[in-house]
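Anyone up for a design puzzle?
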């Protein structure tokens, strides 16, 4: 889903809640340096997948997410962020609950990388 207003292959978002949710997913799945005109956008989650999953690695991932949210999503407050390593599958699960400022809107994301 992308916020386009013309007919295309994408579903149109008309609500702020949906737009923010899909922008957050895009942010979490984009690696730092992937966007040529905005190289700081994104997180370094994928680069940490093959590191030893220690408390320091989890802290680095959480810190990267929180820093990026603070820079690119000023209207989003992090309510809960949990990064759970699944080392046998070289995978991490990110649970992210957030609130949109000045609204009663809350939502959550579960992303497996």
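Challenge accepted. My sequence:
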């Amino acid at each position: 889903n992308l916020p386009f207003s013309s007919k295309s292959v994408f579903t149109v978002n008309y609500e702020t809640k949906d737009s923010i949710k899909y922008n957050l997913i895009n942010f979490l799945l984009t690696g730092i340096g992937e966007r040529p005109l905005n190289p700081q956008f994104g997180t370094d989650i994928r680069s940490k997948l093959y590191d030893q999953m220690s408390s320091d690695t989890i802290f680095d991932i959480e810190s990267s997410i929180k820093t990026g949210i603070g820079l690119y999503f000023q209207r989003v407050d992090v309510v809960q962020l949990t990064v759970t390593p699944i080392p046998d599958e070289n995978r991490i699960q990110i649970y992210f609950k957030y609130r949109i400022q000045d609204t009663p809107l809350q939502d959550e994301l579960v992303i497996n990388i």
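A detail worth pointing out: Helices lie at 16-29, 45-48, 55-72.
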